[in-house]
Write the structure tokens for this entry.
Amino acid sequence: MSILFAVTLAAASTVQPSCSWDHPGVNPYTGKTAAAIDRYTDIPAAVRSTLKRRMEEGQSDDKVIITRSGISGKNQYDPAIRDMHFGAASVCATVTRSKWAEQRQEPGAVYCVDQHCILVPKICGNVSRINRLQTVAKAPVTPPAPAARLGDKLGDKDLGLADAEKYEPEELTEEQLIERDRLQRKAALDAAKHKPSVEEFELPEEFEFETDVDVRITNGGGGHPLLPPFIGGDEDDISSNPTAVPEADTWAMLLAGLGILGAVARRRKQRKQG
């Protein structure tokens, strides 16, 4: 749009310095949205073109609620409304809502490109302008580091750490003491039930046992004990069949086993008699 055409539009429209928006919907805007945007000649042409396209397609940036003292949505806005269109081609530079009831709310849509924002109330379609406030992102709050409990010195070097707190056991009530003793007794009984029993006995200092073992190998004519039959004499003189002779350690193990069995038998007999 040429500058001459923009000036002609501005001259053709009626501009009032201040208006009181007392009754929304009574005097709605009846002109075209594109014509209303083109009257904002301080907005760059490229931005106006983008705003018109997005408004025609219904691609709003925010859905807001207009009240007597503010404009609330997902973004923050200045409560002042300015350059509102009403009628066919009338513009009001400043709009007040001081006569609204405190509980009154009117929905609207906001379209923003860069810092330029257009407000269109749903009830009357009065194209107007508002300012979106810049929100300052808050820096994340870092929680303080917990105080160390490792002492305050390492050798001669002061670490600047907090001293360890002295542990004071919590005093138990009489009911808690009774319950603690009961649980301890129960645990001891359970442990005793599962403990394997082992019968104890004492070994006597001396082993007493009787044995009648007579191992004697003789050969013909010689009669030598514990000698193989082929040592001396002829094979025809052998008077008995050969018998294996236990070694000395075998005899010791046999005698020790017999002694242990005898001691166990006597101990069991004494227990039964007692």
In short: DSSP finds five helices and ten strands in the chain. Helices lie at 3-12, 33-38, 45-57, 174-193, 248-273. The beta strands are 14-20, 62-66, 71-72, 81-86, 90-96, 106-113, 116-121, 128-130, 153-154, 157-158.
